[in-house]
Amino acid sequence: xxxxxxxxxxxxxxxxxxxxxxxxxxxxxxxxxxxxxxxxxxxxxxxxxxxxxxxxxxxxxxxxxxxxxxxxxxxxxxxxxxxxxxxxxxxxxxxxxxxxxxxxxxxxxxxxxxxxxxxxxxxxxxxxxxxxxxxxxxxxxxxxxxxxxxxxxxxxxxxxxxxxxxxxxxxxxxxxxxxxxxxxxxxxxxxxxxxxxxxxxxxxxxxxxxxxxxxxxxxxxxxxxxxxxxxxxxxxxxxxxxxxxxxxxxxxxxxxxxxxxxxxxxxxxxxxxxxxxxxxxxxxxxxxxxxxxxxxxxxxxxxxxxxxxxxxxxxxxxxxxxxxxxxxxxxxxxxxxxxx
Amino acid sequence: xxxxxxxxxxxxxxxxxxxxxxxxxxxxxxxxxxxxxxxxxxxxxxxxxxxxxxxxxxxxxxxxxxxxxxxxxxxxxxxxxxxxxxxxxxxxxxxxxxxxxxxxxxxxxxxxxxxxxxxxxxxxxxxxxxxxxxxxxxxxxxxxxxxxxxxxxxxxxxxxxxxxxxxxxxxxxxxxxxxxxxxxxxxxxxxxxxxxxxxxxxxxxxxxxxxxxxxxxxxxxxxxxxxxxxxxxxxxxxxxxxxxxxxxxxxxxxxxxxxxxxxxxxxxxxxxxxxxxxxxxxxxxxxxxxxxxxxxxxxxxxxxxx
Amino acid sequence: xxxxxxxxxxxxxxxxxxxxxxxxxxxxxxxxxxxxxxxxxxxxxxxxxxxxxxxxxxxxxxxxxxxxxxxxxxxxxxxxxxxxxxxxxxxxxxxxxxxxxxxxxxxxxxxxxxxxxxxxxxxxxxxxxxxxxxxxxxxxxxxxxxxxxxxxxxxxxxxxxxxxxxxxxxxxxxxxxxxxxxxxxxxxxxxxxxxxxxxxxxxxxxxxxxxxxxxxxxxxxxxxxxxxxxxxxxxxxxxxxxxxxxxxxxxxxxxxxxxxxxxxxxxxxxxxxxxxxxxxxxxxxxxxxxxxxxxxxxxxxxxxxxxxxxxxxxxxxxxxxxxxxx
Lengths: 340, 306, 326
Hints:
- The structure holds three protein chains of three kinds.
- Helices cover 42% and strands 11% of the residues of chain B.
- Chain B has helices at 2-16, 31-38, 54-59, 64-71, 106-119, 137-148, 177-180, 196-211, 243-249, 251-262, 267-290, 298-301, and strands at residues 46-48, 95-97, 125-130, 153-159, 162-163, 166-167, 187-192, 217-222.
- Chain B starts with a helix and ends in a 5-residue tail after the last helix.
- Chain C folds into two domains: 2-180, Rossmann fold; 192-318, Rossmann fold (3-Layer(aba) Sandwich), CATH 3.40.50.
- At the A-B interface, helix 6 and helix 8 of A face helix 6 of B.
């Protein structure tokens, strides 16, 4: 079992809380500042333990690519949350100058090479970054994040086959939240329909596959570290299925301009009428769960936990305020950055 | 099998003398699979195939004359000269099509199986593809769905160890195609594709399951591609099989030897079969040569239906 | 110092030189150098030269990812139509990532493929689909029609920091032409005037450049001097050279192996109609493939394609020296 010191454990908790608070503030923006966020946002609440546990294994030159549900990762990497919020608000001081929005954050200087808005299509790109890492021979690895829905994409198959054949230094982390928008994975996945873990797919690529409780950051840290070590040693990729539960709906309402946007209830309730499933997930919320664990084992003092929470709230207040105050880009800026 | 062998050898000659043109992929070495599978199917069962489709089409019942005419681009060709070798269709016998896109019609085969189920019939669908197709994304997408929906479709993979000009080991760490579907609960088997009787037996078992509306299944047939990837391929990338070795793996020769040994047929019977095949092929060439080239205006007629 | 070599050798030469010059250039694709004895492998090693399976989405996506991570991959896609399997990566990812990141990242990849192989390869292998990649901001498209341009445009494509579709013409691979030795670059966005003339401007791409030149010879015997312009890259397009020519000649015919509404000819014609209207003394005429999937049978295949006869006929029509046909 992994041994992390108290500072590291508290750091993990803090990052989880930062992600949660940031996502809460994004969600609240729809109510508190209607019209400010346009388009489609996708939140990571419920996946914090998996995100932080995975990223805690990274070394300084490692890289990652993610899906459009991308806010959590740069937060952990140290990206400025003010710039992130400003990007989501479409402002000039946004992380990407307002060009990408919520689904297309990027911070290549910190190793976050970007996202794809198309399910599964970042998987080959992460595989390519791993190819680059292999050629460079500096011990870098790449983490590739995607959801269970992506595992039905041809891109998944082609990428995992190649990564295994070429022994690329990549760790594939599939965050399985059991839903693909409003479809349950048993409805679309032969393995899920058979009650099997999705990690069995790894067998078709001659690579190790593991399933882990994505609500436990230390369990995630342990398995991702093992996979990262394997990749660094040149032994090739690993597929990790991290089981999480998304606490918000897939994304905010999709509607034409003029219709106020908001976050509806989770699809378990709205589509399947299964409120009990959702409530059980709430009871198992990984953020308070980890806090309670650290407090119980004496690592974290409740007073300190409250201080951390207060600082995090202040940080995200500042992020929202900064974003609200940030000007919009000049319209003509739309023609910049088309070509390098 | 004799008909396929004879036809393909003649096509090779005709290609060299430029009477057949374009991109041609021959089924020499694949006769055991084509015959072992297709001869057990009905006209209303559907077969899809890849770019190496002549053998499958013939075994499914495609008439040799119109097939040869298609390869010569004539108006009486199966596709009126529009498709050519890689796009053979013989709908009357359920050969719904060859494709030039590797694995490209595996999803189409699934669709056919869905339709059969909706109609409530016991028609089954077979799709042939090579080992190269297994690494393509659409293969994966099809495998998941076929398994999820338990479709009565039989995937037949002719694993000849090469995808175009590179060996399988350059494409994937998974040696056996049947292992590629291991996570998905397929009924699967690997047989020696050069042993027509073994192919017949293995496919027959899967056929029985599919007739009950159940599936999916994958039959991997290990074969040897006697000639290059396409006619004109200099094949510098592999060692040619020595002649005696080829005789040992040649499905036509093997079945012939076995039939003689088991007393299922006499030498005279063999000769008769071969003579008939040769005559049929000769006739097909005459038919094709006698067929005119299509009127160019045909190109405008068939772009849209209706 | 130039010497005569075939088109396909010029392509190889560019790749070799660029891989020597810049160790971040990678080359992989289906059937690329499967043997360790291949000269490219011996020169540059298996890290940089690899064979990949039939997995276009992964091959192209991997190129994008490696580019994001600082390399310059060249992906051998063999035929432009195989890119269709992975259109998302080509159109929706590679050219858009830089922009969406606000300029933080760049994607210096080259998608190398052949096209137009109307030699009996039938409906799925013979298209000229380059127009599908035009009008996608962030993407560039090069169509070399000579060995020298095959070399020069490939080198420029590799050095370009943007995703480039570098499409060679399969009917031309054995055509010989003068190719400079050593480093040789042809800039994007600069058309080449292949033949000067004062009576009519013919704009042609790829294999149709040769057809236009043949038509020009026929027409010269009739006293008509055609100016033949080869854009060389259709994105970016050198409209200026074309407009200057039309200003001189007053007449425009465009030849393109693609079908009408999928042709480069169609959008080039629109540029001239809008910006060169006052120069035109007659309507513009397009000579493109007819609207059908390329048929297999040779007489039908020839029928649907543009050729020197059809080009010459179109010229006579715009010059008013022939009856207009429908």
